[in-house]
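User: Before I run my own analysis I want an independent prediction to cross-check against. Here's the chain; please return only the structure tokens and, at the end, one sentence I can use as a sanity check.
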Amino acid sequence: MNLKDFSLVRERVNKIASDRGLKPSSAFYFFSMDLLLGVNENDIEDSITDTEYLNQKGAGKGNDKGIDAIFIDEDKSPPVVKFFNCKYTEKESKLENHFPSSESDKVIGFFNKLLEKDKNLLREVNPVLAGKVEQVWAIFEKVNPELELYFCSNGYNGMVEHEHASIIRDLETKKRVNVKFFLMEEIISRLLLENHIPVNAKIKAVGKHYFEKSDGNVKALIAEFDARDLIRIVCKNENLRNNPDPDNYSDLALEGLDENSFKDNVRIYLKQRTKINQNIKNTVNSDDRGKVFYFNNGITITCDSFDYPGGGRSSPIIDIKNLQVVNGCQTINSLFEAYKDSSVAFENGDVELLCKVYQTTDKELSTKICEYTNSQNPVKSRDIKSIDYYQIGLEKQLAVKGYWYERKKNQFADKEKGAYSALS
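Assistant: Structure tokens:
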């Protein structure tokens, strides 16, 4: 159990409750469905079928059969119908509790009647849920939609083992209803990734200078890359990022760098104020530019996945998904500044760097890779901890209260003072 998780979610839910005049348990519908679906508040409100919520809104009484919301997406082919059962606790002592056993029984009973098109169901449920049931039945007449059932909770546990097995057997196996659990760990993961836009790119290695190693939940690729390509894969132009063999790099100087590529880096770019960053630029513009590979510690990238053709071929193209430059932000930015000043030094591909690419979806491991590989510019303990899970959570929690929490030096340098109060 993590009280920081509980506090972060509580702050967000209470803010919604205060803004909309709701109980926290009802506000949790808006909170969880927003995270899962990314739809607007009106669409969420239209989806809610929970009897207690509807009573607050004066929308009639009746049973909800354990179905708190139904979101129907007919824009997809086939249509997707998402059902929600939500449980929210305001007590820290209940975070380890499982879903009540009665919930699975109620939900299974609902789906039995829904899929059998039992007309008695319309008389047993509240009017809003009855209307949703009729919408689903109308879809059944035209096509077989995908059905998804979400059990959402700010707790850490789903159902006890035998109840989980029962609902999977009765719904997934027999009725093809995809059952999912949206619990505290995934909620926190999504909160920490809010506003993050994945950066995908393709890059060509230099010759056969690459090596791969894998071990459990991590896979690594060590390769040599043209400096222009390392700049290109983090630029704002998506088409340019995914063109591993451009006819020329002339447009590169016109592009900015995508800050989403550096979210996991411990610091904001220090520009040319450090001696090391200025030395990188000076070396590129000297006769020693071909030795940047030897002088520089290289670039470290983490990603969700990377892939390239096998067979030991020369200059393979590596397809990288959701990349993060966790070490080398200063180097890439300095190279970009040098390129904008004069691209001539880069024209023959003389500036090359070593790069390590790590594939892992383990956030803790990714953070450790960042921590242990940062050494080129002196890194203070504060900077190392700036991407720590707890620090990011604290930033999110304080933002709800109207504060900017500066995890990284100059993180909010471009923000207008006065809009928020600053903490560091």
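Sanity check: The chain has a mean pLDDT of 87.
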